Amino acid sequence: MNRSYGVIAVILASILWGTTGTAATLAPSLSPLFIGSFAMGVGGLLQSIFALSNIFKERRLIANHLVFLLIGSIAVSLYPLAFYSSMRLSGVTVGTVVSIGTAPILSAIIEYRSKDFHITKQWVIGAAFGILGIMLLCFSENSATSTQYSHLAIGILLGLIAGFTYALYSWSARQMMLKGISSKAAMGTTFGCGGLLLIPVMILVGSQLFDSLINITISLYMALIPMFIGYLCYGYGLSTISSSTATTITLLEPVIAAILAMLIVGEYLSFLGWLGVIFIFICLVLVTLSTLSKASV
Q1: Alpha-helix residue ranges (DSSP H) falling in 28-102
Q2: What angle do helix axes 103-114 and 149-178 make, rounded to 10 degrees?
Q3: What is the pTM of this model?
Q4: In percent, how much of the chain has pLDDT > 90?
Q5: If 0-12 CB within 10 Å is exposed, 13-18 middle and 19+ buried, where does residue 266 land?
Q6: Residue 213 CB neighbour total at 10 angstroms
Q7: Phi, psi dihedral angles at 51 (to 5 degrees)
Q8: Pick from 26, 17, 33: which is nearest to 218 by CA?
Q9: 295 falls in which pLDDT band (50, 70, 90)?
Q10: DSSP letter (8 states) at residue 297
């Protein structure tokens, strides 16, 4: 039953995260570096405050596993900078698809060495549908592909970096939980320290925050809803399922992002793109069933 709730929590987090790309486009005067650093930085610091009592109680256990905290914190600080820059350069759909779509494979590779991931046939089939769906979404004809090729290429590269750092901090937080650290403490310390590392970026590139009410509103929304609440849900999910399973389920995020980009931003999604969306949903069903079947064994 805990795994079922964990899957639901990760799905909810994915839906919230799927709104971030479109929300960021509503404040075009803000630098993507500021949006990323503010959203993840403030959201991360709020998580650490929320988990302060747990962190204090488990401080000795956390200190014994500082290497995971260090890896996770650095990955948390790099992820939003790469992710939001990728979306600004290559478009909401492509940036989100590349960043989130590559994470499950990278996560599985990382986990394979730590023996925290056991491949099943159902997972492989589901992941294959997901990757194919990601490819169809990425190469479908949408407004992002009209971007200058050099910008698109850099955006995709940054998306790959975002995917790797996303997989890395998911893995490190999961490792802390496997060492006996609670979900609140693991996520609170990882994102809190990552948030501290992002403060200098906020200060350097945040001069336009107070230029308009929309800038303030979007920044607060990003920090409080997708980042704070979203990562609370994700942290709970990580405490019950493996990070590779969690990152695979978050393939729902680019689907939400693509639909919102089409409806609000005006990006075009072709037949291939919609086919990709369907394949990603098939992936979600297969991976979810695979996860729940493990719980019943």
Answers
A1: 32-50, 52-57, 59-63, 66-90, 92-101
A2: 30
A3: 0.79
A4: 30
A5: exposed
A6: 8
A7: -105, 15
A8: 26
A9: very low
A10: -
Place of tokens 């310390």: 189
CA torsion 66-68-69-72 (nearest 10°) is 160
Q: Which residues of 140-173 are buried (b: 16+ CB within 10 A; e: fewer)?
A: bebbbbebeeeebeebbebbbbbbbbbbbbbbbb
The one-letter amino acid code at 43 reads G
- Helix ranges (H only) for 91-212 are 92-101, 103-114, 121-139, 149-178, 183-205
Residues 6+ apart with CB under 8 A from 113: none
Cα R_g (the chain), whole angstroms: 18
3-class SS of residue 14: helix
Question: How many CA atoms, within 13 angstroms, populate the side-chain half-sphere of residue 29?
Answer: 12
> How many whole angstroms separate alpha carbon 41 and alpha carbon 55?
18
Q: How long a stretch of residues is the chain? A: 297
* pLDDT tens, residue by residue, 229-255: 998 898 888 888 877 778 778 878 878
277, 47 in Cβ contact below 8 A?
Answer: no
pLDDT at 240: 85
Long-range contacts of 118-121 (CB under 8 A, 24+ apart): 120/290, 120/294
